[in-house]
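I'll show a sample.
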Amino acid sequence: MSVLLRQPISFQHSLMASVSLLWTPKACLHSDRTRERGYHVMFSAAASCIGYIILAIWSQGASYFALFLVIGGSFSLFSLVMGWATNVLSPMSKRGVGTAFIVSMANCVSIAAPQIYFDASDRFRKAHGIAAGYVTIMDLAVMRLKLLNRRKEKIHGNTSKHEKDNVVEEFDAFHELPDSDPNTT
């Protein structure tokens, strides 16, 4: 490959990486500021899904735009989901196990990706459709969690941090296994 062809390709990769570099911190900081993770996860998943659909359907010019959506949406998803999980999981030992579980599930994508992205003859249309399907399933699961949390807040009311700690100690002691982590107060 000549030097003239390598330069535009490296510029395109740098441009797409910079979109992810700008999108991810902006989404994470905004979700932290508003203390609302679910809608940010749904927006990033929807952007990624739209990008995968465009990649599966349209031409090369539209596919280039779709890569910005896929990369920005997909890379920000991991950070947003990790932020959501670490805020929701209360004792430190459960937070550690939950975080490790999420990271291990995210690493399973490396197992699945070579199995679906193997046939370049159709420009990976089937693989992009499968990826769009999985992102849609994740988006629907997040919507379901938001609805369940909203229903739970209507029943129990919106509580402060101190009240949540008391509720965990008193109410959920029956429903959860006891945690004997010495680092929790």
Remarks:
- The mean pLDDT is 79.
- The chain has one domain: 3-170.
